[in-house]
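Extended Data, panel c. Modelled sequence:
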Amino acid sequence: MFRKFDTPKVAFTGEVTVADLKKFIEDHETPVVMGFDQKSAGKIFGENNPALFVLTSESEASKAADAALQAASSGLHGKILMSST
């Protein structure tokens, strides 16, 4: 899969079945940490996906929270959607 975010190229390594391909596409179609916009809101609220939001500002505490979200994101990708604003 070729994308314009995170890792630009992601290889499918599972069994070639409709269910496995669908799961792979769903897990990799969005950035690990999404900005919050109309598309991400639809993905989160419209599909009832679990999500974690971090609301940030220019403060050092916000920057630290955003960095922690980025660090945790790789282990949570595909399990919970993450958004930082």
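Residues 31-84 form one domain. This feature is highlighted in the accompanying rendering.
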